[in-house]
From TrEMBL:
It comes from the Eukaryota. It comes from Nasonia vitripennis. The lineage of its organism: Eukaryota, Metazoa, Ecdysozoa, Arthropoda, Hexapoda. Pfam families: EcKL (PF02958). Gene3D superfamilies: 3.90.1200.10. This is CHK kinase-like domain-containing protein. Residues 135-325 form the CHK kinase-like domain. Transmembrane segments: none annotated. The gene is 100116817.
Length: 404
């Protein structure tokens, strides 16, 4: 598998033959980087155009795909995360969990629920060396899907659509747990282990780095005791090891932010669909952890400051309505218990939100940035004014909600 922004034709044909059958013939293919430098900090992601014929008598088809491959060997993220586990998890989600959730939605009259892009095949870590690992999926951008500006965040209409879809996704996860217990317990739970990041012994602790950076802003330093309770070595351990009590364990995305949420509009310009991508971090834990992370990192200032409670209510009402329709007992999920679980989950997601803002607001020279510069350019660099403003608003929101 070549890594110069192209997929080897022989490799691509093998992957597509596994999807469509051995008689498929690849006629033409081309590929290029899907995202500009500095927009993706981990995996290599290519857009692929392929002309194929399923057999000698079939018409030519044009496929527009995305190929997600392992990071380059020199990428700093490979020293931080175990991408072998991450890729296994993502492949399992696309090829196993997504189809089951779709079947459950149809079974219980929830409509055609396709939360993720369609899978077109994969080469797993156990089948090759790291350089050959790849996931093929449909190119949603070619179909007109888009992500909002990560610095501006989602407006109210996009946020409402997202929260309703997220609640539906979570509720169908509980439906899977209830109605497909063998699959859920034997397969989903097995593949949903959290993958902690690795840090060399001589590296400065990232929690300590972020706390010191936050304290340079007088507005944040005023709340240093509250902030330290949520950014300290113990919380770092809890982020990866804490598992919610029942009945709150199910499927959680765990990286639910702007760039992993894609929207579509109809011919009249009205929002009509939303899809989620990048499931390499999905876990078996409280799905409510996706809520504070999304609301605090990926909504506009106006939405975060004026519509936060409205969106929490919308999530809860949608979640309960879908649980009822898919025949899952809602008694354990009262609003009081929901609020208590959300407070617990928010305390775990505070650090996640703070470091996400550091990534989103980093001032990257797109022409010269490469993935080996992750630490000096993104993590350890001085925050800009926008980052400090966003951090301040997260702290204000947490205090208003009684989460810190």
């Amino acid at each position: 598998m070549s890594r110069s922004c192209e997929i080897c034709p022989a490799d691509l044909q093998l992957l597509l033959c596994a999807k469509f059958g051995p008689r498929l013939k690849l006629l033409v293919n081309s590929s290029s980087s899907l995202l500009p430098p500095g927009e993706n900090f981990a995996c290599e992601i290519f857009k692929v155009r392929a002309l194929v014929r399923r057999d000698e008598d079939s018409p030519t088809e044009e496929l527009h795909l995305v190929a997600k491959a392992f990071p380059f060997k020199e990428a700093a993220v490979r020293q931080v995360f175990d991408f072998t586990q991450l890729f296994r998890k993502e492949v399992f989600f696309y090829e196993n969990i997504a189809p089951v959730l779709k079947d459950l939605a149809l079974e219980f009259g929830e409509g055609d629920f396709e939360v993720a892009p369609r899978s077109f095949g994969s080469r797993k870590p156990e089948d090759c060396n790291d350089e050959g690992v790849v996931i093929l999926m449909e190119n949603l951008q070619h179909a007109g899907y888009y992500a909002p500006d990560k610095l501006e965040g989602s407006d109210l209409a996009h946020s409402r659509l997202t929260i309703k879809a997220l609640a539906r996704f979570h509720a169908l996860g509980f439906a899977c747990k209830h109605h497909r217990p063998d699959f859920f317990n034997d397969q989903v739970v097995k593949n949903a282990n959290m993958v902690p990041f690795r840090q060399s012994e001589d590296a400065e602790d990232i929690f300590d780095v972020l706390f010191k950076l936050m304290m340079k802003d007088s507005r944040l330093a005023e709340h240093h005791e509250r902030i330290f309770k949520l950014i300290n070595p113990g919380k770092k351990i809890e982020f990866f090891t804490h598992v919610a009590e029942e009945p709150w364990r199910s499927i959680v995305h765990m990286d639910f932010w702007t760039n992993n949420i894609l929207y579509h509009k109809d011919a009249d310009g009205n929002l009509d669909d939303v899809k989620f991508i990048d499931f390499q971090n999905f876990a078996y834990n409280s799905p409510l952890r996706d809520i504070p992370y999304f609301l605090c990192t990926s909504t506009s200032h106006e939405v975060m400051t004026q519509h936060f409670d409205e969106l929490l209510d919308l999530y809860y009402d949608t979640f309960i309505d879908v649980l009822k329709r898919v025949k899952v007992n809602v008694e354990p999920f009262s609003r009081d218990k929901f609020d208590a679980q959300l407070k617990e989950d928010a305390s775990l997601e505070f650090f996640h939100s703070i470091i996400a803002i550091k990534f989103f607001t980093a001032e990257v020279e797109k022409e010269s940035y490469d993935s080996s510069q992750l630490n000096q350019v993104i993590i350890f660099s001085e925050p800009n004014e926008l980052a400090y403003d966003k951090w301040y608003h997260i702290v204000q929101t947490f205090m208003k909600q009684g989460w810190m």
